[in-house]
Fold this sequence. Notes:
InterPro entries: Aur1/Ipt1, IPC_Synthase-Related, PAP2/HPO, PAP2/HPO_sf. This protein is mainly alpha-helical. Helix content is 75%, strand content 0%. Helix 4 runs parallel beside helix 9 and helix 12 (218-233) crosses helix 14 (260-287).
Amino acid sequence: MLVVLMVYTGEGYSTLLRLVSDIRFPAIVAGMCAVVYARAFWRARLDTVGYRARANAGWRTLGRTLREFSPLFACMAIYEALHDLTPVLRPDIVDRHLVAIDHAVFGTDVGRWLNDHLGSPTFTSIMTYCYVSYAFAPPVYAGLQYFRGKMDAFRDFSLAIAITAFIGYCGYLLVPAVGPYIFQAQLYPDPLTDWGHGGLLDTLNKMKGSARDAFPSLHTAMTTVVLGLMWRDARRLFWTYLPVALGLYLSTMYLRVHYAVDVAAGFATAALALFLTNRINRWWHDRRPVAVPAQRTTPERETASA
């Protein structure tokens, strides 16, 4: 469907080409491939003899790993393509309705209130750090589960992330919104200092552009999925990451990226994704035939049968 939209609109190609040509993304993938191959090549020395056999073991492991991680790479590529596609497919925006919901619930603009009551260079740096953790926590957690051999946990996580991304991308098209820092620019004449405007946050905003990617907050949704599966499968990691995740939820509004209703929609998206992941995997495992071990015939049984 994405390819059809790209062909129809003529948009999206530029972003995908930038994703491929940008040295950072190929470098990340190449680095991961090198680590996976080297690890498999080294471990193969215990079971195989000869360079060729160990090399083949490394290539097989690398191919399997790329296949397992392909849904996460696809989510990244589709998100990048939507930067160009959403403004073309949905030139109209509905930010005013999201602002109205925030006003009805809280009686104010939450981001403005947070800036006025908590704003400082130090707090901005902390919030930016928490916000950026979104780019690292999901792939790091996925890698930990995969390389520890916890494949059921890894596949649950991969499926949950894919479902979360799909719901989020549908939200971008159904509820096109650019976020407070663009729609309410007049409300924020004061730039966030230090890592904020003029620093790392400006770089992130320029990469984001005017894409309709405010509702729901996928920062909130993805982070909640990570926390939910950490609670189930890696309790110590959950408690380690929880303070950063709580900071991330706050940062989405403090940094003027999302409305409060976007964050609420992100929590709902994560809850639905986790629910569907559990149901889908339960259905998948229940439909798979259970292998019945062959019954060995003992000498006593042969005598009794005779």
